[in-house]
Structure formats: structure tokens, C-alpha cells
TrEMBL record:
InterPro entries assigned: CheY-like_superfamily, Sig_transdc_resp-reg_C-effctor, Sig_transdc_resp-reg_receiver, Tscrpt_reg_LuxR_C, WH-like_DNA-bd_sf
Keyword annotations from UniProtKB, A to Z: DNA-binding, Phosphoprotein, Transcription, Transcription regulation
Database matches in Gene3D superfamilies: 3.40.50.2300, Winged helix-like DNA-binding domain superfamily/Winged helix DNA-binding domain
The protein's name: LuxR C-terminal-related transcriptional regulator
All residue ranges annotated as the HTH luxR-type domain in the record: 174-239
4-aspartylphosphate: modified positions: D60
Response regulatory domain span: 5-146
Record's keyword annotation contains Transcription: yes
PANTHER family per record: DNA-BINDING TRANSCRIPTIONAL ACTIVATOR DEVR_DOSR (PTHR44688:SF16)
Length: 257
């Protein structure tokens, strides 16, 4: 019998333990639980080191929220089509997708939310399921995502498709704006996405702070935004990668600043 290894990630202990116990009663399911995103990532790393990788993560959509459903880290300046930057389950989905691409993730939600469900799919989730669904339904989803299926409640399909279509449009518009940048401005933008300030960008690109300031102003103007935060949000929508602070080596070149 092929066994399915499931990790339940939820900071509500009673729910996590109850769900884990119900899943563990299945003859082909091995289940563990974690109470936070960092704990889940540690479980994944430990499992890899021990040669017993997890197959599916069941992640609470509201992971890391305070009492009353308030996100632990408020979203700041979220632009249309850009997922909220909160310390929630969707952020964990993206992290797992990057570090453990073979692991399938399913988001467990207390309410239907087409926008967040679309963000979850964009982050790499394979499903969005109500927390109060039946155990048989949840098991069907777990087995389905392992067959490369994507699972959404039928009532969410129209809304999710609308959100994904809008996100594609925003991405296309953002890509056109980014394409208007010069190579040097694009490199400055990558540094901005990486979180570097003007002085750090200047040191990295061997430019004066005054020159970097001019490039940053040009970037904001061409992108049609008024702040670094908005420029970074637009760049992320367009798929601009942050400068690799660990691996990229920026050398002097004959290109004029």
C-alpha cells in the first residue's frame, strides 16, 4: 500500500489535532501537525533529511492571524492584482512552493473568498477547501491533488476565474511599463525589489548616490507610480526578480550611467 504523508498546519491546536486524528484513522495516511509557518518549514526540512518527505500540506488560510482574524502583519499598499503581504497561510504556500516544489498544498478556509483563493492558486496551491467540509471530501481532495488535479468549491469557480483574468491583465500592463526602462534602470529596479536603499544601490552598481537618485526618479516616472513601495509592487506583478544579493556580481562595464 502506497502511504500518503500529510502535514496539517494550523495554529488552532484543537482543530489541528482533531483533523490529524481523523486523517490518521485512514489506513493509507500518515499525518503530522505544525502550529506555525516556521514550524511547518522545519518539519519539511527534517523530513527531507530523514528521507521521508511529505506529500501534501493542509494549510490554514488564516495561519498567523491574531484574535478576531486580524493579520499578524498588516498588508501595506497592496496594488490591484498583487497578493497581500501578510504572514498567513498563502505566504506559506508560496514559501513551500519555492523550497519544496514536489509537495502539494491545499488551503483550508473558514469562508469562501474568490480573491484569496485566486492568490492561493497563484502562490502554488493545488486546492481551496472549506474547513467544515466532510472528511470524505477532504480525502478526495488530498488524493486528487496527488494526481495533479486542482480542487475548488464550485461556488468559487466564476469568481476565481474573474480574479485570475484580472491578474493577468495587470501583469501584462505592468510588463509593458517595465519594458520601457533602460537596462540600467531595470537593474536599479531589481535592487529596489531586493529592498536596497539608495546608498546600497550606489555601492552595488558603482554609481554615485545622486546618479542612483536620478535613476530611481526615472523608474518611478516611467512606471507611473509615486513611491518605492508602489514600484516594487508593480515590478513583482511583472515578474521582475530581485537582485541576487548573495550570488550576483556586478562588475564595472563600459555602459554609461
Amino acid at each position: 500500500m502506497v502511504r500518503i504523508r500529510v502535514l496539517v498546519v494550523d495554529d488552532h491546536r484543537i482543530f489541528a489535532e482533531s483533523l490529524a486524528a481523523a486523517l490518521a484513522a485512514e489506513p493509507d495516511v500518515d499525518v503530522s501537525a505544525a502550529g506555525s509557518g516556521p514550524a511547518a518549514l522545519r518539519c519539511l526540512e527534517r523530513a527531507v533529511a530523514e528521507g521521508r518527505r511529505f506529500d501534501v500540506l493542509l494549510v490554514d488560510a488564516d495561519l498567523g492571524t491574531a484574535a478576531g482574524g486580524v493579520p499578524a502583519q498588516r498588508e501595506a499598499g497592496t496594488a490591484a492584482g498583487q497578493p497581500p503581504h501578510t504572514a498567513d497561510g498563502i505566504a506559506l504556500v508560496a514559501g513551500v512552493r519555492a523550497a519544496h516544489p514536489a509537495v502539494r498544498t491545499v488551503v483550508l478556509a473558514e469562508r469562501d473568498d474568490p480573491r484569496r483563493a485566486a492568490f492561493a492558486l497563484q502562490a502554488g496551491a493545488s486546492g481551496w477547501v472549506a474547513k467544515d467540509c466532510s472528511l470524505s471530501r477532504l480525502l478526495a481532495v488530498v488524493r486528487g491533488v496527488l494526481r495533479e488535479e486542482t480542487h475548488l468549491p464550485p461556488a468559487l469557480l466564476t469568481g476565481v476565474l474573474r480574479e485570475l483574468t484580472a491578474a493577468r491583465k495587470h501583469r501584462s500592463d505592468s510588463e509593458r511599463l517595465v519594458e520601457s526602462l533602460t537596462p540600467r534602470e531595470h537593474e536599479v529596479l531589481r535592487c529596489m525589489v531586493a529592498g536596497l536603499g539608495r546608498k546600497d544601490v550606489a555601492a552595488r552598481l558603482f554609481l554615485s548616490p545622486h546618479t542612483v537618485r536620478t535613476h530611481m526618479q526615472n523608474v518611478l516616472g516611467k512606471l507611473g507610480v509615486h513611491s518605492t513601495l508602489a514600484a516594487v509592487a508593480l515590478a513583482r506583478r511583472a515578474g521582475v526578480r530581485p537582485a541576487d544579493l548573495a550570488g550576483d556580481v556586478v562588475e564595472r562595464s563600459g555602459q554609461l550611467a
